[in-house]
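W.,

You were right to be curious about this one. When I first looked at the sequence I had no strong expectations either way, so I just let the prediction run and decided to look at it fresh. Below is the sequence, 80 residues in total, followed by the output.
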Amino acid sequence: MAAEKPGERNDFADRGVANASSASQFLTVAEVASLMRVSKMTVYRLVHNGELPAVRVGRSFRVHAKAVHEYLETSYFDAG
């Protein structure tokens, strides 16, 4: 891949795609299920119901770690 010259556009940056370090913040459904201590089916249900945003990669989904943490923060239940 050629180095970007001054004045050239970085198409990836223009589309909001960050560097490789932030790409590692995307989790598989299995990783999300493990983190939340639920089944993969529960994660799929959250994704399909629109409660947990995900990106489709081929036939699988990737969920941004920030989306998982935001979902958990908004899901606290006060039983008091």
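Here's what jumped out at me. The longest strand covers residues 60-64. And, maybe more interesting for your project: Helices lie at 11-14, 20-23, 29-36, 40-48, 65-74.

Coffee later to discuss?

I.
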